[in-house]
Amino acid sequence: LETLIAVERDISAAKEHARQLEQARIAAEEGARAKADFLATMSHEIRTPMNGVIGMAQLLRDSGLNEEQELYAGAILSSADTLLALINDVLDVSKMDAEGVSLSCTDFDPRACFEDTMRLLKAQAEAKGLDLLLDIKERVPAQLHGDDRRIRQILLNLAGNAIKFTEHGQVQVTLDAEPAGQGTGLVFSVTDTGIGIPREMLSKVFERFSQADAAISRRFGGTGLGLAISRRLAEAMGGSISVTSDLGLGSCFTVRLHLDPPRAEPAVAPAATP
Ligand code: ADP
């Protein structure tokens, strides 16, 4: 009888332990959701007035100021832009935490996607005297099915970083494709001749708010979230992102994505009537 009572006591202790674990799990989940909700709400609330500041600073800058005033208006604009970029990144990350990454897939032309995005970066590269090169391999298909907005976002992050952390030389983007099961593996790399990343930081740069060198990063600006977001996006697209780098010589980021073939039938030319 004593053994029976001891066993029963063990069982109730185990049950109590399991109940406590479950309660802790629910509390942790609720905490994470509350944190993500708070960040998302705050980011929204800050974004609206920030857009107002940017709009007004733009008007002010273009309103025929003298040289000194123009400098001040430019400084307001650039700080506001930096703050808005940070808010957008925080909003993006908190949304991904709360809801996972939501992809919005359509048929798209990968070549146009890369060419358009590179055009956006041209002025930035030219301002620093850098060559911005794009090499699209023959075998890249004309149509794929995927979220091209998110692919642009990854490319903007990587190529934007490459330009930011390079003082001389070039930024080279290469787009290639490889067969991947039922779909297509889209592989692209962004190679620069910039400052490089110390070996011990290579595995950390994809972590949130991680910056290889705090002093350098402060000088170049940035949020420390771009690579964390890019990695989440690449993984959501069945892919990965990796980096190799030589300190002082440059870095190379490579992204692999798994995309589906286009859904729509290719347009067929009407048969010629005899
Ligand atoms: P940030 O907004 O600071 O650029 P990221 O997440 O995009 O944030 O990058 C994290 C850090 O990784 C950067 O602060 C920088 O230290 C390093 N890094 C990223 N890309 C490069 C690059 N092309 N060359 C050198 N360092 C880089």
Textual characterization of the structure:
It comes from Leisingera aquaemixtae. This is histidine kinase. The protein has a five-stranded mixed beta sheet, with helices on one face. The chain has a two-stranded antiparallel ribbon with strand order 1-3. The longest helix is centred in the N-terminal third of the chain and has 60 residues. A hairpin with a 3-residue loop joins strand 6 and strand 7. It is α+β, with helices and mostly antiparallel strands and about 270 residues long. It is globular and about 95 Å long. The site of adenosine-5'-diphosphate has 23 residues, from helix 4 and helix 6.
Element-level helix/strand string:
HHEHEEHEEHHEE
How would you sum up the global shape?
globular
SS summary, helix count: 6
Number of distinct beta strands:
7
> Segments where pLDDT lies below 50 for 5+ residues?
none
Strands ordered across the widest β-sheet:
2-4-5-7-6
Could you give the distance between the termini? 99 Å
Structural class: alpha+beta
Keywords: Coiled coil, Kinase, Membrane, Phosphoprotein, Transferase, Transmembrane, Transmembrane helix
Domain Histidine kinase: 41-261
Organism: Leisingera aquaemixtae
Protein name: histidine kinase
